[in-house]
Amino acid sequence: MKNRYFNPLKKHHRPDGFQNNYMSFRGKRWHEILRWRWQAWRAGHPKAMGTPIAVVHPDLDFIHSNAKAGLQMQPAVTWIGHITVLAQLGGLNILTDPVFSDRCFPVQWAGPKRQTPPGLTLSQLPHIDVVLLSHNHYDHMDEASLLALSKQVGGCPLFITPLGHKRWFARRGIHHVIELDWWDTHVLAATAHSERTPVTLTPAQHWSARTASDALLSLWGGFAVMSPQCHLFFAGDTAYSKDFADIRHHFASEQSSAAGGGFDIALLPIGAYEPRWFMQDQHVNPQEAVQIFSDLGCKQAIAVHWGTFQLTDEPLDEPPRALSRALSAKGLSEHDFQVLPIGGSLRVAPRCPS
After folding, report:
1. Angstrom distance (rounded) from CA 262 to CA 252
2. What structural domains does the chain harbor?
3. Overall pTM surpassing 0.85 (yes/no)
4. Are 46 and 307 in contact (CB under 8 A)?
5. Residue 150: its pLDDT value, please?
């Protein structure tokens, strides 16, 4: 199939799809998948959890009062589970890769089953202004959740996606969609209740596929949300690459010391990484997530993409332990890169330009 968006001036564009900047992705061969499953079966992977995943009741009073605070909003993030985070900043309620379904699969009677409940239900959410969608894999692009959000009371949110997703939404009657290429920016205009907020699609080392015939035909990526009161980075799904040093360089003038420094909060994946020979070109492990934290020059991060769906060989509760070791090795604290309980919120200090 041909790439409808092909631009020969952009190196990540190919006539037949998209590619990464620093390592071309190729789909795994059938024998590699069989090798992975055979080795996992022989070793008894994944092992059972030793520690239950922490789940707390969300602070709904704070979340909903903050949602209505307009320009007085306290920057905050609430981990709903897996890759889904409610970010509140600049008067906006933003949701990342909303996945509320019981399974991340084309059907709800098969595939990886949710092991922990969502930290907030769809009915507990405040009105969502913007949804950031990183790519089209089923554990990120959940049809039932997106349809429910499009019908929320008060009107459909704005869905911001990488190239190649508008037609999927349009077939489902959703037209409030903006597509971006890497480094494209959509500016959310200031209103009486929210600040002017640029949203930029950033590169990631990953891939896309929704069916057996559409691999690499839609783009993937992360997002930089640059509210005056809080700079947020959402990595989406990614392997480690030089892209993160590029992202820091790209925003250097906006994140100088005089301008308030680097990203105030980053949502970085730490799970679904074993075995490395199979996963290293698409998912970071905790050590690499810490390197991304350093490459970006973040002030603080929370761990996502773990603790909800058993997707790979490591135990579901292992990523935080590996993250703790990686932080210690780099001389960083668990305050710098936090593991929230599902349903937990982190209030973020507003930016203070000097």
Report:
1. 8
2. 57-347 (3.60.15.10)
3. yes
4. no
5. 98
